[in-house]
Amino acid sequence: MRSELLRFADWTDPVPAAAREVVSLTEDARDDLPPLLFVPGLGHGAWAFAEHWLPRAAERGFAAHALTPRPGGDLRAQVHDVVQVAASLPRQVVLVGHGAGALVTAYAMGRYPARAAVLAAPVMDGWPTLWAALRTNPVGTLPALFGGRLRLNRKQLFGPGMPAEQAQPWLDRIVARPRRELVTHDPAPRPVGDPPVLVVGSPDDRIVPRTSLDRIAALYGGAPLLFPGMGHDLMLDVTWSEPIEAVLDWLAKELSEQ
Amino acid sequence: MPDTPDIADRRDAVCVIGAGASGLAAIKNLREHGFEVDCYERETSVGGAWNWRHDRSPVSAGTHLISSRPLTEFPDFPMPDTWPDYPGHQQVLSYLERYSAHFGLERDVWFGTEVVSVEPVGDGRWDVTTQSTGGGSSRVQRYAGVVVANGHNWSPSRPEIPGDFRGQVIHSAQYKDPTQLRGRKVLVIGGGNTGCDIAVEAAQQASSVWHSTRRGYWYAPKYVFGRPADQVNDRLLALRLPLRLRQWLYRRVLALTTGDLTRYGLPVPDHQPYESHPIVNSQLPFYLGHGRITPVPDVTGFDGASAVLADGRRVEPDLVITATGYRPRFEFLAPELLGTAEDGRPDLHLHAFARQHPTLAVVGLVQADFGLFPLAHWQSVAVARWLRLRVTDPERAAAVQQKESTRPVAGWSRRRVVPTARHWFEVDHADYLRAVEGLLREMEPTA
C-alpha cells in the first residue's frame, strides 16, 4: 500500500520550480466567496477558461483563476503546479478541473484540502476513454499511441450546434501529446479535508463515456450533473453557460450549508 | 451557542493551547474533522517561536532552517517552490502567517490570552482557566478535549557553572543580532545547531571565539553531492538500508566531505552517527580551519575574568553565550496528567497522547532528523481522528486504544541515543511516521 505519510519522492527528488501561466480575474471578487482555480485538460490551457467560464465566475463575485500547467510535465509535476498555485492564493480554493485536468485535480485533492472541487467531463478512466477515442477518431488517436500528436476533432469536443468556423481556431490551438500515465495511472487518492465534490458532464461526450461519469461521481458519493447535447469541451461549446451556472449554483449552496 | 444553560460549557469543542506552527496545524485538522476549536495564544499574533516579535521567540537575525524545504513544509500546504532550499526565519514566519490566513485559522484564536490551568473533570472533559496576558480576571470553560501545542523551545535551560564571572553571560535565547558579538571576545557553550550557528556568526564578527563542547559530534554539511544533505539521507531511508550500513555510509560521506575534525582539536565523537540529534553546519569546519574558532572542552567554572575549562586551561571572554537548549514546560498541567517524571520528562504515547487521559494530547513535542511541521501535522491528524472516533464509535476506539497500548516503544522512539535531556523526544522520522500511519490506518473512517 502506498504511504501518504512517507513521501520519499517529494523529499529526495522535489519537483523543480517552473514558470506557470495563471490568468486571474479578481476585481469584482466578494470577500465571502472562496477563489476558484480552473485546471485545463490535455492540450488546453488557461485560455480555454478565459473565453467564457472565467469572466462568468468573476461576474458572480468569485475570484477566478485559471492555470496552464508547465508544458511537458508529467502527472506529478502537473499536480505539483496545481497545489503550488492553490497554496499561493490568499484563501482556501475551489478546484475546477476539466478533462485530464480533472484527473490532475483529483490527485491534487490528495495533497491539498480544497474548499470544494468540480470535476468536469473527467478523464479519469484511462481505458474506456482510449477505447472511445479510437472508435470515434481513429486517425487522430493512433499516432498518439506511438508518441505522436493527438488530433482531437470537432465531433469529440463539441456538440452538433457548434459552427465549424468557430471551432476550427480552438482545434488548431489544442496541441495534445498524451502521456502513457493518462491511461495507466493509479486510482486517485482519497481527498484530504473531505471536500464536497461535484461531477459534471454530458451523456453525449465522445471522450468520456456516460458509465465513466457515473462511476467517478459514485466514487465521490454523488451522481453526475448532466448536460445533454454538449460535447467534451463544456467550457467552449455553444451552451457553455449552462454548466458553469449550475456549478456556481451548487457551490453557493454548498458554501451556505457549511 | 443556543440553549446552553451553562455559558462556560463549550460541549464538544476542543481547546488548543498555542498558535505556533503546531497549534495552527491542530486547529486546521481538528476543524477538518468537524470539531469546533478555541485556541488560546498568549501573544498577539501567530507564528510562535518563529515570530521574532514574540518575547519568547528564540530566533535571531541569522536563523535559517536546518532541515531543507521539502522536508519541512506542511504536507498539505507546500512552501513556494521558488524559495531557497533553506529558507530564513522571516520566510518561515510569512509561511505560517499565510497558512493561517489561507485556512482562516485566526477566527478561532483568542490572542493575548494565557492558559492558567487545565484540570480534568471526569468523563474525559476538561476545565480550562484562561486569563488575559496583561492580568485581569480569569475565566473557566469546559472542553471535550485539550490539545497542548505550547512549544518546547522557549524556556531556556541554563547550565549551572560555579564561580563568579565579571563578564556578561547570556542564553542563546537572548542572542538576537550579530552586532551583539562585534569586536568582543566570545565564548559559545554548546555543540547543538544553535551553538554552532552562533559560533560561526561570532567567527565573522567577534575578535576571538572559543567554542566549548562537552563531546565530539558528527558535523554534517548542509549540502552533499550538490543536494541538501537531509534529502540525500532520505534516499538511503527510502532504500530501507539497515542502520549499521547507514552509519557506515554516514561516516564515509563525512570523511569525504567534512573530513577529520580532530585535526583542529575537536574530540572524537563518543557515539555513532544517528545516536544524537543531527548537527548540520557547513561553515563551522571552515572557520575552524581558518583559526577563527578555537574549540575548547567543557567549562567547569568561572573565576573573575576567566572561564576555567575541563582541561585546566583558562580563557578570558567578555561575553559567554550558553547555547544549552530549552526544556519543555507545562505549568498549567499537573505533572501526573502527562506522566511527567521527576526530571521533567513527560511520558506520552507517540510523544503525543497522554497515557491516562484519552482526551489530552500534546502536538509538536518531538525532535527529529526532519522538519517539525510535517510531524506536527500528522500528529494533529491522528489526534483529531482519535477524538472523532471516540465520539462516533466508542467500541472501535477502545479496540484501537487496546492495540496501541501494545505498540512497542522501540518501533517509534529512537532508543540508542546519547542519554541527555536533549534527546528525550528524539525520533527517526521514517520510523515515527510509519508508526503514526499505522495508528491512522486503524482509525480509518469506514465509508
How would you characterize this protein structure?
The complex is a heterodimer of chains A (258) and B (447). Chain A contains 12 helices and 7 strands. With 258 residues, chain A is of the alpha/beta class. Chain A has one domain: Rossmann fold (3-Layer(aba) Sandwich), CATH 3.40.50.1820. A 7-stranded mixed β-sheet of chain A has the order 1-3-2-4-5-6-7, sandwiched between helices. In chain A, helix 6 crosses helix 7. The longest helix of chain A is centred in the C-terminal third of the chain and has 17 residues. The radius of gyration of chain A is 17 Å and the shape is globular. Chain B folds into 2 domains: 259 residues, FAD/NAD(P)-binding domain, CATH 3.50.50; 155 residues, FAD/NAD(P)-binding domain (3-Layer(bba) Sandwich), CATH 3.50.50. In chain B, strands 3-2-1-7-22 form a 5-stranded parallel β-sheet, covered by helices on one side. Chain B has a 5-stranded parallel β-sheet with strand order 8-19-9-10-15. Chain B has a 3-stranded antiparallel β-sheet with strand order 4-5-6, with no helix packed on it. In chain B, strand 5 and strand 6 form a beta hairpin. The N terminus of chain B is likely disordered. At the A-B interface, helix 1 and helix 4 of A face helix 2, helix 4 and helix 9 of B.
Q: What is the top-level CATH class of the largest domain in chain B?
A: Alpha Beta
| CATH topology term of chain A | Rossmann fold
- The tally of domains of chain B stands at 2
- Widest β-sheet, arrangement of strands of chain A: 1-3-2-4-5-6-7
- The geometry of chain A reads as globular
Assign an overall shape of chain B: globular
Low-confidence blocks of residues of chain A: none
Unreliable stretches covering 5 or more consecutive residues of chain B: 1-5
Instruction: Briefly note the structural class of the backbone of chain B.
Output: alpha/beta
How would a crystallographer describe the biggest sheet of chain B? 5 strands, parallel
State the total count of DSSP E strands of chain B. Answer: 24
Largest interface: A-B, 29 and 31 residues
Largest sheet of chain A: 7 strands, mixed
Could you report the average pLDDT of chain A, rounded to the nearest whole number? 94
Q: What is the H/E order of chain A? A: HEEHHEHEHEHHHHHEHEH
Strand order across the biggest sheet of chain B?
A: 3-2-1-7-22
Helix content of chain A: 40-55%
